[in-house]
């Protein structure tokens, strides 16, 4: 098991300190990362909490998954590795000019 946990369904008012307090009741919290929007600085509603051992991470999952924090039921599970994203984009390639249409001259 991994000791890094995904925590979802967070209230926008929940802080890293709130999460640290909630998770520290179940073991040593190594790190809390609350994800925020780059442009607004507002919470994105999820975070990652790293516990010091797998056993503490499992205890936190069992105790906090579905538990209420700031009026919302938490989703707590083992964080999955980040998936690689392709660097391509939509829109396809440029099409060669094929003429057609009305002429301005």
Summarize the structure.
With 105 residues, the protein is an alpha+beta fold. It has a single domain (4-78), classed as RRM (RNA recognition motif) domain (Alpha-Beta Plaits).
Set out the fold topology.
Elements: E1 4-8, H1 16-24, E2 29-36, E3 43-51, H2 54-64, E4 68-69, E5 72-73, E6 75-78
Antiparallel strand pairs: 1-3, 1-6, 2-3, 4-5
Strand content: 25-35%
Taking the sheet with the most strands, its summary is: 4 strands, antiparallel
Q: Tell me the span between the first and last alpha carbons.
A: 71 Å
Number of strands: 6
> Measured on Cα atoms, how large is the radius of gyration?
22 Å
Helix content: 10-25%
Mean pLDDT across every amino acid position:
88
Write the CATH fold name: Alpha-Beta Plaits
Low-pLDDT sequence parts: none
Number of helices: 2
Q: What oligomeric arrangement do these chains adopt?
A: single chain
């Amino acid at each position: 098991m991994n000791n890094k946990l995904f925590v979802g369904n967070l209230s926008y008012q929940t802080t890293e300190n709130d999460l640290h307090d909630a998770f520290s009741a179940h073991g040593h919290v190594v790190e809390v990362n609350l994800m925020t929007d780059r442009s607004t600085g507002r919470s994105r509603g999820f975070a990652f909490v790293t516990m010091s051992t797998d056993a503490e991470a499992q205890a936190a999952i069992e105790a906090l998954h579905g538990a209420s924090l700031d009026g919302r039921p938490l989703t707590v599970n083992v964080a999955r590795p980040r998936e690689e994203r392709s660097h391509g984009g939509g829109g396809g390639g440029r099409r060669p000019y094929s003429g057609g249409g009305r002429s301005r001259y």
